[in-house]
């Protein structure tokens, strides 16, 4: 804690240094906004989102993808506003878990921790099991399981290198996938077959007639939901808060830049495909619409090169998510949110690489084990958890303003220049509050309503409710009986590792 005589500039510098030495951990504060954005975008993997989720959306919702992904982009930016304000107030490693636990309390934090603990390794497994499908265009006969295990092992090893090395590695891969998206956009816009005004009337393929038919409001809402899932991941910037310079201001920028770039990187090529496809009926009826458009527009040889680039993009995403998942477990261990015998080794940071190696390896082992779970179970187990995470973030974005108001009132009576500097360092405040979290909650509510009305989603929703319920049960049975953990999770030591 700074003395009352410490000048504000020195206080900020001290906080920046303290963020690297939390509870004996030594994370390296060596990332700028750009490095953080490179890793975050790599975890989102816009190219694989366009080919996989975007392709599925084209098949299901036709030209409704334009409105669906456009509206989803607006909602995603509003959720990014929530992340940005929360992260500037609590720039702590651990992602959603750290934000929610500090603002809504340790019970909600435990629920979000369980969501991440389960979903992140499963997402890595899902991505890894799909790598063979794309590498198969160049290397025939690849075994999906064997390929997945090798890819995860290599990704986890890479994730144990220092953070700047990972920023460079993921940045190089990211350049390749952005080039693939730029090619898609170029192919569509160079050979425009229909004006953008034709996309304003949502139409989808009618399986009965083989022609186009108007897309109902329910289908459009589902397209929006698909877009939200496709853009997901910009909140990943928060995982690297303690490794980002001038974190209180920089993390908000990293979140907002990541969200904005993701929306453009996915919406523009999908719009180009809709405008440039020779036949919308053929496009929507194809088993793999984006690959079909690419092959028809650029030829088989170019398609093979691009599909290999998508495989590299997926590997890149696995590296980035391995980095995030390691910091989730590290942050929870450092908060003593688990028994000391488990927490102590997981909270250790390598003296050489300044990375939470043990926590990263443990999460990698969980991802390796998840590869042996049936693929449809993996999808169901991760399908509805995102809506819960966003719901907690939106609720926290409401609550954080009340916390800020209390702090501002306290600092107004303080005579310490350090207290005044700390109050001034609260950071980013979202525009139009409380509209962003309110609209986000409405969108999340719509996702839940759709899920409840669709029996096909009941299993996914049930698993998600079970994970959240397990988190609250963990709090009730263990965490609330741990004074040390509650002290940290209420944010009492946040100055020690925020900047």
From TrEMBL:
<dbReference type="GO" id="GO:0005886">
    <property type="term" value="C:plasma membrane"/>
</dbReference>
<feature type="transmembrane region" description="Helical">
    <location>
        <begin position="37"/>
        <end position="59"/>
    </location>
</feature>
<feature type="transmembrane region" description="Helical">
    <location>
        <begin position="65"/>
        <end position="86"/>
    </location>
</feature>
<feature type="transmembrane region" description="Helical">
    <location>
        <begin position="357"/>
        <end position="375"/>
    </location>
</feature>
<feature type="transmembrane region" description="Helical">
    <location>
        <begin position="301"/>
        <end position="323"/>
    </location>
</feature>
<dbReference type="InterPro" id="IPR050367">
    <property type="entry name" value="APC_superfamily"/>
</dbReference>
<feature type="transmembrane region" description="Helical">
    <location>
        <begin position="168"/>
        <end position="192"/>
    </location>
</feature>
<keyword id="KW-1133">Transmembrane helix</keyword>
<feature type="transmembrane region" description="Helical">
    <location>
        <begin position="107"/>
        <end position="129"/>
    </location>
</feature>
<keyword id="KW-1003">Cell membrane</keyword>
<dbReference type="GO" id="GO:0022857">
    <property type="term" value="F:transmembrane transporter activity"/>
</dbReference>
<keyword id="KW-0812">Transmembrane</keyword>
<dbReference type="Pfam" id="PF13520">
    <property type="entry name" value="AA_permease_2"/>
</dbReference>
<protein>
    <submittedName>
        <fullName>APC family permease</fullName>
    </submittedName>
</protein>
<feature type="transmembrane region" description="Helical">
    <location>
        <begin position="135"/>
        <end position="161"/>
    </location>
</feature>
<feature type="transmembrane region" description="Helical">
    <location>
        <begin position="432"/>
        <end position="452"/>
    </location>
</feature>
<feature type="transmembrane region" description="Helical">
    <location>
        <begin position="381"/>
        <end position="400"/>
    </location>
</feature>
<dbReference type="InterPro" id="IPR002293">
    <property type="entry name" value="AA/rel_permease1"/>
</dbReference>
<feature type="transmembrane region" description="Helical">
    <location>
        <begin position="254"/>
        <end position="275"/>
    </location>
</feature>
<feature type="transmembrane region" description="Helical">
    <location>
        <begin position="458"/>
        <end position="477"/>
    </location>
</feature>
<feature type="transmembrane region" description="Helical">
    <location>
        <begin position="212"/>
        <end position="234"/>
    </location>
</feature>
<keyword id="KW-0472">Membrane</keyword>
